[in-house]
Amino acid sequence: MPRRLATLVAVLCLAAPAVRAQAPAAAPPPLLAPLSGGQELPLPPAAVAVPSPAAVLGYPLGARFTHWDRIVEALAAIDGASDRVAMWEYGRTYEGRPLQLLAVSAPKNIARLEAIRKERLRLADPEALPADERERLVRELPVVVWLAYGVHGNESSSAEAAMAAAYALAAGGGEWAELLAGTVVLIDPLVNPDGRERYVAFYEQTRGREPDPDPGAAEHWEPWPGGRQNHYLIDLNRDWSWATQRETRDRLAAYREWEPQVY
Q: Is 164 exposed, middle or buried (0-12, 13-18, 19+ CB in 10 A)?
């Protein structure tokens, strides 16, 4: 009898993985949580090969705040799966967090991104070019658009919006894909990671099981120094004028490498 029982247990153990393997995979969460009024935003059809940020994170964007390391993880997953995306680091914050930049465009533009960048710099000084060369560059080069999110760390939905924008551009079909033929979109997903991390830590420590819209709730009373400024409590939006901070200097250098038509 013990031998028969042992044999039965062994068979069940071997069969269990096969049974589990036949279970259908759980559907990934939707990209976006419903808006506060219950509305849902219309989204373009997306390529299934590109993982959505919600699939990487395990929750819809807007359901909770996302820490910077997980944001980078979600964006890296998009970069690894889409031939419309190139992603690189352009600097570091004072607390050592990477500053990331994504280029999203048609695959043919991503394949020659460095050549586009160099020609774009030539066009940034049009008076130095012969008229026919200037007209050729205007005619042939894609427009460069820079989208920057989260200069103030406690304006906290911005990084979630950046992930949604990157995914929609990288995976969206129809007219979304067509628009990228003549456009290079540069996405700076979080200008102030240090300040945002400070704010998210405060919020996670004070909110209850569900968000509380009451202005008197603790989650709405951010203590000093808050998350608006960077590590040294400098407002990075104002620092464009003086460039005293590492984040600003790194960003200015990256900006001058592209001279985008739209910022």
A: buried
Q: How far apart (Å, rounded) are the C-alpha atoms in residues 112 and 8?
A: 62
Tokens of 60: 């819809």
Q: How confident is the model at residue 39 (pLDDT cuts 50, 70, 90)?
A: confident
* 32 φ/ψ angles, rounded to the nearest 5 degrees: -120, 140
* Measured CA distances, 43 to 31, 34, 177 (Å): 9, 13, 13
State both tokens at 97: 């967090």
Please classify residue 36 by burial: count the beta carbons closer than 10 Å to its beta carbon, then call 0-12 exposed, 13-18 middle and 19+ buried. exposed
Query: Which structure tokens are listed for 168?
Result: 């929609």
Structure tokens at 210: 């569900």
pLDDT in tens, 155-201: 989 999 999 999 999 999 888 888 999 999 999 999 999 999 999 99
CA 222 to chain centre: 25
Which residues pair with residue 186 across a beta bridge?
103, 146
Instruction: Specify the 3-state DSSP secondary structure of 173.
Output: coil
- CA 100, CA 112: separation in Å to the nearest integer? 20
Distance, CA of 168 to CA of 31 (rounded, Å): 10
E strands, 79-118, are 85-92, 98-104
Q: Tell me the pTM.
A: 0.88
Q: For tokens 């989650």, name the residue.
A: 219
pLDDT score, position 5: 43
Burial label for 23, CB within 10 Å (0-12, 13-18, 19+), is exposed
